[in-house]
Amino acid sequence: MCTTCGCGQSDDAITIQLVGEEEHLHLVDGEVHSHHHGHGHGHGHSHEHEDHHHGHVHSHVRDGGSPHSGDKKVLQLELDILQKNQLLAERNRGYFEAKHILALNLVSSPGAGKTSLLERTLRDLQEEFPFYVIEGDQQTMNDANRIAATGAPVVQINTGKGCHLDSSMISHAVRKLDPCVSSILAIENVGNLVCPALFDLGEGRRVVIISVPEGDDKPVKYPDMFYSAHLCLINKIDLLPYVQFDVDKAKSYARQVNHHLEFIELSATTGQGMEQWYAWLRDNRIAQ
Amino acid sequence: MHELSIVLSIIDIAEEQAALNGARHVEEIELEIGQLAGVEWDALDFAWEAATKNTVLEKSSRKLTIVDGRARCLECGQAFSAPTLFTECPSCGSFFSDLLSGKELRVKSLTLV
Questions:
Q1: Which range of residues forms the domain containing residue B83?
Q2: Are A105 and A133 in contact (CB under 8 A)?
Q3: Domain count, chain B
Q4: Which residues of A fall within a CB distance of 8 Å from B13?
Q5: Can you give the pTM of this predicted structure?
Q6: What was the ipTM of the complex prediction?
């Protein structure tokens, strides 16, 4: 049962909620169940359907010419398995580009410091740019509440048992956030260095964060994430004196996987290196 | 376990095509997945068995072609076999390369009955 609204959705269902609003969405098989809670009049319940996209299909018959010989039909599809995610990601990307929004997909293993980095960034830069945040976690509103404390509008997506965000979740979350023109949208993906690599959300830039207590061989242990990223933030560098982490070695491993990758070393705790990250945001915001 | 999402996407494609063509089920499905696509084969098998129950793919035979990773060196132009995303060029030792293949994730064909 959904613990927020008491409806029949299990805790495994995907929930999308704007902090400060009780109304939230459940996504079930791509279908939206939305709950409006007002003054004891029970549930308003609406259903919405995703657009269905049909790929361009060529059908060729291989078994002897007749299309129905033996009632068998062979379809040569050549369809991308993740085409639905990809199509919706491109739709999100078009929306972001049209509104000059710099959309960032922040990915890391759990505990690398994504939320702390965002909190500090929002506190330091929110006078300069409008910021919006989407938080992805399997459970709880904890991270969204931390972000909300900085004053930035934030939507929490709980993926239930899901190990990554996808473009459909982002599309629904963005509708709730309604970000303004020329803003920065930070999407904090589920803490996981494997699964989110495959799912384009429509972001303009993908930022992978590693922290120095994690080990400098992360880029070759989990190469897919580094292969698809634009920027690598090396966080918690204030801890370098206490851990065995060779920054040059980590960078060289990451470059073996992706020679386009940029790097910034920083500490969200002490503020060291944060100016470089802010300069990168300014540059990439203009590039959008 | 993003393999479950992959299998669910494959089921979507198969169900949609079966419905469009008035087929009852899929006799054979041909998949083409790259060695570097980030798919764990055991996890794919596990997800397949669990997720295809009561779908048009439940009794299908699955033909999986694994596409080898290949890259071209940006320093010397040599094309070579790349079983990982960080394979060095065998002729000059450089890591500066672009992938030629290995990232495929495709449903190649369906045999409907």
A1: 3-112
A2: no
A3: 1
A4: 77, 79, 81, 83
A5: 0.87
A6: 0.91
